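Let's study today's protein:

:::
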Amino acid sequence: DYESSYQILKNIVSGDLSISTDLRHTMEAAYFSLSEMFLYQNKYIEAFDILSVLNEKMKAQKRQNTAFAGSIQNNLAEAYSGMGQKLEAIEIARKSIHEKSGALTPREMANSLSNIGQYFIHLGQLDSALHYCQKAYFIQDTLFGPYSYQKNISYIDLSHIYAELKIKDSFNYFVNKYI
């Protein structure tokens, strides 16, 4: 059950269980995957519990500037957002980009920027949303072909923003890109 699995995670992460570093990293990856499953199922509190423990471990082991730690923080921001705490989500996502900019791949950077843009959309702060969504789009435009899931998300986000801002030409441009 969830409670016993969570307790095992805490014991592994805290070092209370004597296991090899390789096994510990494998278990971390497994629990990260479990947190992603929880996010997919909109079980944000469960995902948050796991990701918080993993995030603290990364800090304690001075591994917070790794790509894995960046993925943990991106998902932690998503969990915050799912729990309705958009400002906390933005703070974590911005901090993650700032701390890990050298460790993030362009795809991860675009994903992080897109997420921040979406959080701002949910807050109704369209100028900030536009800033982040445009940055994400420009990275995605260089990475992916004309048809990609990531770019479709940018088309939807940007068309939504431009519609709300009543900028018809830009709205039409991104709607036509999506279609």
In short: The mean pLDDT is 85.
